[in-house]
Amino acid sequence: MPLYQYRCEECGHEFEEMHSVSAALPECPECESESVKRLITTAPTIAKGALAHPGDGRRATKEQLRDKWAEESPKLRAKMRDKLGDDVVNSIPSLNMPIDPDS
Length: 103
Fold this sequence. Notes:
3 helices, single chain
């Protein structure tokens, strides 16, 4: 079930409630007013490519991170080469280091 944040329009108290999407708005726990407003605190993001988390989302093993870097660095190198040229990309040491599978 999603966790929602609310602010009471009567007393200004902010609180959190966990309930289904279709549930009615809760009362304020401080003044019991029904005049509450849901706050938008975060927005979902869809991460792709190098921004996507390896592994299960937030925690990744060293091997998963290494695999993700090995997958994404050639794509990054190609994009940079298209925009900046071979000379500039070849002068960036971190893009030209071999990926050591034993480190």
